[in-house]
Amino acid sequence: MGEQTSSVAEAALAALVHLKEDIEGALLDTAEGINEYRIRHLSRKQGQITALLKRIPDVAPEDRKRFGLEINAAKDRVEARIEEATAAITGAGTASAASVDLTLPGRTQAQGSLHPITQARRLITRVFENYGFDVAEGPEIEDDWHNFSALNFPPDHPARDMQDTFFIEEPGTEHDGILLRTHTSPVQIRIMEEAMKEGEPPIRVIVPGRVYRNEAISYKSYCLFHQVEGLYVDEGVTMADLKQILHAFARTMFGEDVRMRFRPSFFPFTEPSAEVDIWWKDEDLPGGGRWMEILGCGMVDPNVLEGVGIDSEKYTGYAFGMGIERIAMLRYGIEDIRTLYENDVRFLEQFS
Ligand code: PHE
Questions:
Q1: What is the pTM of this model?
Q2: 298 — alpha (psi -120 to 50), left (phi > 0) or beta?
Q3: Are residues 218 and 156 in the same domain?
Q4: Which residues constitute the domain of residue 131?
Q5: Alpha-carbon separation of residue 285 from 74, 281, 289, 290 (angstroms)
Q6: Which among 50, 143, 291, 317 is most buried, taking Cβ atoms within 10 Å?
């Protein structure tokens, strides 16, 4: 007899295993579907789970507990699925307590970060503010006068070609050379013009901003980039002041052991002119690194001062223009300028 009742239990459990496929897998996306599912499993007359429950008395006492637990678990699942599916199709109410998994990890908010160019610009600006410079801005769409002529570029001078300009209106047309500024130096002119309306130098200002050049794109050049212009005009300003402030800047930016060099150069609006390079360490390169140009600078050409009405016998000045991207690359070890413009989050999130 015991053997018989336990085989009753085995047969019922086997039926239950079979049932589970439907209990877990049935598609419950309509009210009719849910109703049929309820009838199929739980109805008093036709329900398969109900049928199994009725067989409990046939099962041997020692197997009853296991049998009962299995069936009750199946019944709980059916009820939970009905409740969940009903809530989903009516859209009403929240999910049942049973369907909320409190052990799931929470949803975290992704932490944003400032673009490395913005970070570098803010840092550069702060360093010069600490040295007493004011901060100013100027327009990105410029005229030929401010971008070139007032800066002592003669009309047909090859130095204009150096700048690879994006023209909006060609020179000689009605508006005579409206262009995307190729450097932040035109803001020097605007600032000196403004200052002379109100009085005299001293003028001590830095100008961060975006500039554009129609040049070949490479790991170190892009068609748009950012500069910070510096201008200091006063009595008795010398090249030594310029070198001193740029050295101090480089040490703040890149550390006390930074290697920096001044190279003689040419700009139409400064005389003498220089370019400044910083040593980029890279063990893979022959010589252990290379020099990277970060800025152009020089003593403001007397012609430029006179052009805006500043007495060049009384006043002298220095100016510099540095590339923010170059500085960001050196500071953060970025090897290719183009990565700064691709907006790849995997790259950008390294700077948070
Ligand atoms: N405007 C120059 C450039 O874009 C840099 C510069 C600025 C040079 C100021 C001298 C003085 O290359």
A1: 0.70
A2: left
A3: yes
A4: 116-351
A5: 69, 8, 5, 8
A6: 317
Could you tell me if 136 and 268 lie in one domain? yes
Q: Cα(10)–Cα(16) distance, rounded to whole angstroms?
A: 10
Q: Is residue 19 part of a domain?
A: yes
Regarding the beta carbon of 212 and ligand 1, being less than 6 Å apart is answered no
88 and 125 part of one domain: no
Per the structure block, which two tokens stand in for 213? Answer: 């050049």
Do both 85 and 164 map to the same domain?
A: no
Cβ 326 vs Cβ 293: under 8 Å:
yes
What atom in ligand 1 is closest to the CA of residue 230? 9
- Domain assignment of residue 108, yes or no: no
Whether 343 and 282 share a structural domain? yes
Total domain count for the chain? Answer: 2
Ligand 1 neighbour 321 (Cβ under 6 A): yes
Q: Is the CB of 267 under 6 A from ligand 1?
A: yes
Q: Is the CB of 317 under 6 A from ligand 1?
A: no
Per-residue pLDDT 10s for the chain (352 aa) are 444 556 777 777 788 888 888 898 888 988 899 999 899 899 888 888 888 888 888 888 888 888 888 888 999 999 999 998 988 888 655 555 667 888 888 888 888 889 999 999 999 999 999 999 999 999 999 999 999 999 999 888 766 766 688 888 766 666 667 899 999 999 999 999 999 998 989 999 999 999 999 889 999 899 999 999 999 999 999 999 999 999 999 999 999 999 999 999 999 999 999 999 999 888 999 999 999 999 999 999 999 999 999 999 999 999 999 999 999 999 999 999 999 999 999 999 898 8
Shared domain for 85 and 152, answered yes or no, is no
